[in-house]
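Need a sequence for this fold. Nothing fancy.
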């Protein structure tokens, strides 16, 4: 992995991140195969970095638009319209997410709080990404809606509908992180219809919209929402889509925000209270890159890379490490896949003991879910990033075999 000093050295200041603490305790961190997060270990496309060498002078100063660099905002509007097959003149607009989509979600939460007095709640998928880490500190009551293996990791609309109110927010993550399972279009449509009927706000997390099985179309929640909403009065909604996941530049913090114009205006007002426009040279480079055919070609190759590694890891878990098929959940989208921790290596109902054993073997998988707490009898899982070369993934799995960390 990258030298730890380059990525986690905080000097004498405390570092609360669990992975940083684990790596700090690793005997040979430079030789560690880090599979918990990973987009930052592979350079962005050559065409994207080349665009950084030819930037207009004005991109090194401030911008007077609160919606991002005008060139990128205009190109993103066309890009989102094209890749989500949206009507060109629908009741939506697009702005630049300039400080990561996590910040945009927090701004949206603040906007919702400003509209209502009284308690607010948020419905988040479980297992899932760290939505509770955003909303709980802001005073939202977090309701986790379960997705189970026996339900093919799909949400069950009937379980969520009673929780939808004008004081709640429904989070949808159709290319689901961490399971890698694509939610069905029918399920997403039913959830959106129920939320609209009950005036429940909607957040669509499209972080992995572009990273799906090659030659297949992803479940398109944004288009479904715009079609279902039509021209009638609808509750506030926001769709966030990071460009870092699909072009391996998460540190740039650039993405797209799609919403009704009045919602984007409110989010810009909230953001402007804290900061001016940021990373404008990076925004200019992204604007140039998105107009190149090479951007689409790169995405095609990346989808193929993830699909090939997904198949490789699934085969090696079964053949090399003896995992039963029921414990391997390869999925079809995102840059990750999950597998169940061998029951003999589960302690306290979670995956942390197994992760430390893997760390001792020179491999660090990720947590199976970023939502705290497991049901007492629920299986524990870990997650692997698939962005490495197939040779590196093979090396990691061989290390686990030598350390006797297979199923039996």
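Here you go.
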């Amino acid at each position: 992995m990258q030298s730890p000093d380059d990525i986690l050295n905080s000097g004498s200041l405390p570092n609360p991140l669990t992975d940083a603490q684990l790596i700090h305790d690793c005997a040979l961190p430079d030789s560690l195969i880090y599979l918990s997060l990973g987009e930052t270990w592979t350079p962005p496309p050559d065409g994207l970095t080349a665009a950084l060498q030819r930037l207009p002078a004005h991109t090194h100063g401030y911008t007077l638009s609160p919606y991002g660099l005008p060139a990128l905002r205009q190109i993103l509007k066309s890009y989102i319209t094209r890749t989500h097959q949206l009507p060109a003149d629908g009741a939506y607009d697009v702005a630049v997410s300039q400080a990561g989509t996590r910040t945009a979600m927090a701004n949206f939460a603040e906007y919702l709080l400003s509209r209502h007095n009284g308690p607010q709640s948020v419905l988040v998928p479980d297992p899932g990404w760290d939505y509770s880490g955003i909303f709980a500190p802001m005073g939202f009551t977090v309701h986790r809606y379960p997705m189970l293996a026996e339900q093919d990791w799909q949400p069950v609309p009937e379980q969520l509908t009673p929780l939808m109110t004008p004081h709640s927010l429904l989070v949808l993550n159709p290319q689901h992180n961490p399971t890698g399972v694509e939610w069905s279009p029918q399920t997403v449509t039913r959830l959106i219809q129920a939320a609209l009927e009950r005036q429940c706000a909607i957040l669509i997390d499209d972080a992995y919209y572009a990273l799906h099985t090659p030659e297949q179309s992803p479940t398109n929640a944004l288009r479904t929402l715009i079609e279902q909403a039509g021209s009638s009065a609808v509750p506030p909604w926001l769709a966030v889509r990071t460009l870092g996941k699909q072009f391996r530049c998460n540190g740039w913090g650039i993405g797209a925000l799609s919403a009704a114009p009045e919602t984007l205006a409110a989010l810009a007002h909230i953001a402007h209270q804290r900061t001016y426009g940021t990373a404008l040279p990076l925004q200019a480079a992204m604007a140039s890159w998105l107009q190149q055919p090479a951007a689409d070609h790169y995405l095609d190759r990346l989808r193929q890379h993830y699909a090939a590694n997904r198949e490789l890891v699934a085969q090696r878990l079964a053949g090399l490490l003896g995992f039963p098929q029921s414990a391997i959940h390869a999925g079809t989208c995102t840059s990750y896949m999950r597998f169940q921790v061998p029951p003999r290596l589960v302690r306290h109902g979670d995956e942390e003991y197994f992760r430390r054993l893997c760390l001792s073997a020179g491999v660090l998988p990720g947590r199976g879910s970023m939502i705290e707490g497991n049901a007492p009898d629920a299986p524990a899982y870990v997650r692997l990033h698939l962005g490495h070369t197939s040779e590196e993934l093979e090396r990691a799995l061989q290390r686990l075999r030598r350390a006797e960390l297979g199923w039996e």
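For context: The first strand starts at residue 33 and ends at 35.
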